[in-house]
C-alpha cells in the first residue's frame, strides 16, 4: 500500500485507526498480543497463588478458618491502588514503560513473599506485590486494544486476557505438585522468578502503543515503522503525519471519564466490575479451603479449584466473537448463567464430580464475563483516557475483590453451610447481569 503526500502546501495525514481497520490482522499484532498475554500469565499466577497455598499455610501457622481474609484483601487493595495509579500514569508516559516496571515490581514482591513468617508480614508483602500486579493489567489491555482493528478488538483483547486465566489455573496445578514435595514457599519462588526473567524480554520486544504515539505527536517515524510491521507493503512520504481523530484531553484524566455524557456509562461499568470481581475473588480465594473442609486433600482442592480458571480460559475463547457481535447484551446473558452456575456449586453437596463441573461452568461465565467486560471497556474509552478508564474500572472492581474474600471469610468463620455460602455468592452475578443489560440500552 502506497500513501504519498497530498497536493498543496499541507503535509499528508494518515488516520491510524482507520488504516488498521482496513488491514488484515498481521503476525506483528499477534506477537504483541502474545507478549501481553505472557505478562498477564505471570500476573494471574502470582495473583492467585495465595489462594492455592492458603490451606497449607493455615495448617503450618495454625490459623483459624477465615484468618487469611485480611491477607487476601491486602493483596487486592494493592491491586486496586496499582490499577488506578499506574493506569492514569500510563496515559501520560506510555503503556510500555509501566508494563515493564510493574512486571519487575510484582516479580520481586512475589519472591519476597517466601520470607513471610507470620500473617502480619504476609499482609505487607501481598500489598506491595499487589501494586505491581494491578499496574500491569490495564496497560496490557490498553496496548492490545490500541493495535487491534475495531472489528476484532474484543476478540483480541479477550484472547490476550486469557493469559491471566491460564496463569491462574496453572497456579493451582503447580501448587498441587509443589506443596506436598517442597512446601508452600516453592510456589512463590516460581511465581517470582518467571516475571523477573520476562522483564528484559519486555524491555526489548514490547512496542509502545501505536495510538498513544500517534496521539502524542512527534513520533511519526516510530509510528510508520510499526505500521510497516503490520503491513510490510506500506509506503509513505517522509513528511507524512500520523494522527488519531480524537482530542488530546488536558487536565485531570479521571475527570474526562465523566465528561461528554460518559458519566452514566462509567458508573455502570464500575458496578459491573465491582460485582464481577467480588464474585470472582470470593470464589477463587476460598474454593480450595471450602473443598478441603469437605474432605478433599490440600493438593486435590488446589487442582479442583483451578477449574474455575480453566473454565475461564474456555469461556474467554468461546465468547470473544459473540461479544464482538452482541456487546453488552451477550455480557448480560453470560452473568445470568454465572449466577446459576455459582448456586449449583452449593447444591452439589459432597459429589466432587458435580462440584467440579459447576466450578468449571462458573469460571466459564464469571471469568469469561469479566474478561469480556475488560474488552468492552477498552473499546468504549478514547485513546487519551483508555488506560485511565481501564485502571479506574479495574480499581473500583478491586474494591469488590477486597470485599469478596472478607465476606467469604466472615461467612466461613460463622460456620455458614456450603449451600447458603454459594447462594449468597450468586447474588453479585445477578446484579452484574442486570447492570450489563442497562449498558446494552445506553451504549
Automatic annotation (TrEMBL):
<dbReference type="Pfam" id="PF07690">
    <property type="entry name" value="MFS_1"/>
</dbReference>
<feature type="transmembrane region" description="Helical">
    <location>
        <begin position="66"/>
        <end position="86"/>
    </location>
</feature>
<feature type="transmembrane region" description="Helical">
    <location>
        <begin position="392"/>
        <end position="414"/>
    </location>
</feature>
<feature type="transmembrane region" description="Helical">
    <location>
        <begin position="296"/>
        <end position="319"/>
    </location>
</feature>
<keyword id="KW-0812">Transmembrane</keyword>
<keyword id="KW-1133">Transmembrane helix</keyword>
<dbReference type="InterPro" id="IPR005829">
    <property type="entry name" value="Sugar_transporter_CS"/>
</dbReference>
<feature type="transmembrane region" description="Helical">
    <location>
        <begin position="326"/>
        <end position="345"/>
    </location>
</feature>
<feature type="transmembrane region" description="Helical">
    <location>
        <begin position="186"/>
        <end position="206"/>
    </location>
</feature>
<dbReference type="InterPro" id="IPR036259">
    <property type="entry name" value="MFS_trans_sf"/>
</dbReference>
<protein>
    <submittedName>
        <fullName>MFS transporter</fullName>
    </submittedName>
</protein>
<feature type="transmembrane region" description="Helical">
    <location>
        <begin position="98"/>
        <end position="117"/>
    </location>
</feature>
<feature type="transmembrane region" description="Helical">
    <location>
        <begin position="420"/>
        <end position="440"/>
    </location>
</feature>
<feature type="transmembrane region" description="Helical">
    <location>
        <begin position="32"/>
        <end position="54"/>
    </location>
</feature>
<feature type="transmembrane region" description="Helical">
    <location>
        <begin position="351"/>
        <end position="380"/>
    </location>
</feature>
<feature type="transmembrane region" description="Helical">
    <location>
        <begin position="123"/>
        <end position="145"/>
    </location>
</feature>
<dbReference type="InterPro" id="IPR020846">
    <property type="entry name" value="MFS_dom"/>
</dbReference>
<feature type="transmembrane region" description="Helical">
    <location>
        <begin position="157"/>
        <end position="180"/>
    </location>
</feature>
<dbReference type="InterPro" id="IPR011701">
    <property type="entry name" value="MFS"/>
</dbReference>
<feature type="transmembrane region" description="Helical">
    <location>
        <begin position="267"/>
        <end position="284"/>
    </location>
</feature>
<keyword id="KW-0472">Membrane</keyword>
<feature type="domain" description="Major facilitator superfamily (MFS) profile">
    <location>
        <begin position="32"/>
        <end position="443"/>
    </location>
</feature>
